[in-house]
Design brief:
The structure is a single chain. By secondary structure, the protein is α+β, with helices and mostly antiparallel strands. It folds into two domains: about 110 residues; about 80 residues, OB fold (Dihydrolipoamide Acetyltransferase, E2P) (Beta Barrel). It is built from six helices and ten strands, in the order βαββααβββββαββαα. A hairpin with a 2-residue loop joins strand 2 and strand 3. It is elongated.
Length: about 240
């Protein structure tokens, strides 16, 4: 018996001939996403129920695949299968090369997925430009927000050259627009989409500029000091 292992997806209540071409194609696509970093080429398709299998994986390839599978709960494959409840509760398992997929050891079951709730609101989020994409039909900017979310938003042609000047820099920008958020049972917000309406780059600040402003607008008498920063160091800094 071979030492190589095969990852298998089982749909208990359907045969391949029950599914449309588009449904099979999407199923293959989502299953292949679980195998990224190992081998994502086609292994087999077998009837009984529907069994879709990976090619045989060696130990290192299996470690990569198994980590992704065990952390894929609620992911794209689960979301897709939740639209087809009549296919039955799917299972992802593993069997040795040469064994029947009916002998697979179940790693994870995919039941009904609770769809996240969504809402929209006007929002201003701070972040940096990480990408500019242009084409004859549309233009977009990739944004990395300081809260960790990354998003792509459509922009007008006039904005392309302006935002390009901030690409690859540390300049922070306030992006204002309509944000679409989703949340599940734990009420953790996830940014689904962002329709950009306007933006404003923030001026870079420094302690020298801060002191200059403080002296200019303050009423503490600091404006009369020859070296306000030295006084600040002596009085307040350890």
């Amino acid at each position: 018996m071979s030492d190589k292992l095969v990852i298998a997806l089982r749909l208990p209540d359907k045969k391949p001939s029950d599914l449309k071409f588009g449904e099979m194609a999407e199923l293959f696509k989502q299953f292949a996403n679980l195998l990224k970093g190992s081998k994502d080429n086609f292994g087999y398709l077998q009837e009984g129920s529907i069994y879709v299998g990976s090619p045989p994986l060696d130990s290192e390839e299996y470690k990569v695949a198994i980590d992704q599978i065990l952390h894929s709960d609620g992911g794209d494959l689960d979301q897709y299968l939740s639209k087809h409840l009549d296919w039955g509760n799917a299972q992802i398992g593993v069997h040795r090369e040469g064994e029947s997929p009916k002998q697979m050891k179940v790693l994870r079951s995919i039941g009904n997925v609770i769809k996240p709730k969504k809402f929209k609101q006007n929002d201003t989020l701070r972040g940096r430009v990480n990408r500019i994409n242009t084409s004859s039909e549309s233009h977009s900017v990739g944004i990395t927000f300081i809260n960790g979310f990354k998003i792509s938003a459509k922009i007008a042609l006039d904005d392309v050259n302006t935002l390009k000047t901030y690409l690859g820099t540390n300049t922070l920008i306030d992006f204002s627009g309509v944000a679409t958020y989703s949340y599940g049972e734990a009420y953790e917000l996830y940014l689904e989409d962002f329709k950009l309406n306007s933006y404003e780059a923030l001026e870079e600040d420094s302690i020298e500029k801060w002191i200059s402003d403080f002296v200019g607008f303050g009423r503490s008498g600091w404006q009369d000091l020859d070296d306000p920063y030295k006084t600040l160091e002596d009085e307040r800094l350890p």
